[in-house]
Amino acid sequence: xxxxxxxxxxxxxxxxxxxxxxxxxxxxxxxxxxxxxxxxxxxxxxxxxxxxxxxxxxxxxxxxxxxxxxxxxxxxxxxxxxxxxxxxxxxxxxxxxxxxxxxxxxxxxxxxxxxxxxxxxxxxxxxxxxxxxxxxxxxxxxxxxxxxxxxxxxxxxxxxxxxxxxxxxxxxxxxxxxxxxxxxxxxxxxxxxxxxxxxxxxxxxxxxxxxxxxxxxxxxxxxxxxxxxxxxxxxxxxxxxxxxxxxxxxxxxxxxxxxxxxxxxxxxxxxxx
Length: 273
Known about the structure:
Blueprint: H1 37-47, E1 51-55, H2 60-72, E2 75-84, H3 100-107, E3 111-116, H4 120-133, E4 138-140, H5 147-159, E5 163-165, H6 173-182, E6 186-192, H7 208-221, E7 232-238, E8 244-256, E9 259-272
Parallel strand pairs: 1-2, 1-4, 2-3, 4-5
Antiparallel strand pairs: 6-7, 6-9, 8-9
Helix pairs in contact: 4-5
């Protein structure tokens, strides 16, 4: 996949780009059993600079979680992406994962990837392998309400002596969808699979109307505004920590029965911001 325009300037490992200010600090919350949130964070800050890797799918939640962590002043050293063989994985995001290398380049962060065999054990083993690759104190996840993901990610991290942090955990999804836009994220729908979401939603860009439509669908059809029930997946094309936007050149929408995928066929990097 070739990038369009000028190549991005990579930051030295261990640095973060200058990010426009946004009140994302309130999202930093500890996920899992341990000391109270503030004491756990303070403990890390007193002992050493916090080095974390972000479990990254290229979607809005994992990207915003990484952004909120950077706003806290923590050092996000790597992005970690799992490529599941099972397209119906309950643990990992699946659409358009081939775009994550472009997103990582746009953010100036190294990307580590692992393929996961089908089945829960195969996916957990991939998680175990990728966690071992990153020399960090902890892992950032974009989970909001999935106890299934919560329990399994924490279990593997605990095996390896890593802490798991979830900046978005249990936050109000009706506020989150507005905060994604307020922070300057450019988001598109990459898949939909729920009553009330038809083929017209594929590739639709997020704006205030999208937010209102999602909140209406929550009331009328029980759709989770952030898609935590698997109702939809997203792809982030730009954001406050991107040096370059992702330019989508060609897509192929696929619709089968009551669900569909907006498959990116060709994409590249735009001019430096």
